[in-house]
Design brief:
Helix content: 25-40%
Shape: globular
Structural class: alpha/beta
Number of helices: 3
Distance between the termini: 30 Å
Order of helices and strands: EHEHEHE
Radius of gyration: 12 Å
Strand order of the largest sheet: 2-1-3-4
Number of strands: 4
Strand content: 15-25%
């Protein structure tokens, strides 16, 4: 499975990437929303793991723009927010 992880906390991003690679997944990692968006719009992924709070382009905006472009890759949103 090819997975894109978009996480601005580099330590967390590397940890997620390593864990997924141990399960034999291919993982690309981006540390900001714009880079994540660029990768997701140029490359076909089976799953995107997307942080909610990102520099340059918020995770929700990344998701909205991908959906507007009819990129329907499943997206798992991560957040440290404690409110809905």
């Amino acid at each position: 499975m090819k997975i894109l992880v978009v996480e601005d906390e580099q330590r967390i991003g590397r940890y997620i990437k390593k864990g997924l690679e141990l399960k034999s997944h291919t993982v690309d990692l981006a540390y900001d929303g714009q880079t994540g968006y660029d990768l997701a719009s140029d490359t076909s992924y089976d799953l995107i793991i997307l942080d909610r709070m990102l520099p340059q382009l918020d995770g929700l905006k990344v998701c909205q723009q991908l959906r507007r472009e009819k990129i329907n890759t499943p997206i798992l949103m991560l957040t440290a927010k404690n409110q809905l």
